[in-house]
Design goal:
It contains two helices and no strands. The termini are far apart. It is mostly helical and 102 residues long.
Length: 102
């Protein structure tokens, strides 16, 4: 390693640094800040999509807990009086549709 000669007064020489040595220019700081913001934005977007997909997968479907069965469709009257309680089964769901032709 080369040593710098001492100054004529016997003091050690002064190290001279280039003007921007060890410092980042303002343009470089802006670029680094923009890169950090872009990475954080992308990470946030990916996290948002992952959470939404997990929530969608966790939601029960409208038919959860229901068994697919063959529906029994029956026309029980054409203007006659009907005892609906006698036609409704004890278990399950029953849809009663009233229609009229005008």
């Amino acid at each position: 390693m080369a040593r710098m000669p001492c100054a004529p007064s016997g003091e050690p020489p002064i190290a001279i640094k280039p003007p921007l040595a060890g410092r980042r220019s303002t343009g470089m700081r802006i670029l680094v800040a923009l890169a950090v913001v872009a990475v954080l934005a992308i990470a946030g977007l990916v996290g948002f999509v992952v959470v939404k997909e997990r929530q969608r997968a966790a939601q029960p479907s409208p038919t959860t807990g229901m068994q697919a069965t063959k529906a029994k469709v029956e026309t029980i009257a054409f203007g006659d009086r009907v005892d609906i309680a006698a036609k409704v089964p004890l278990a399950g769901y029953t849809v009663v549709e009233f229609t009229a032709d005008f």
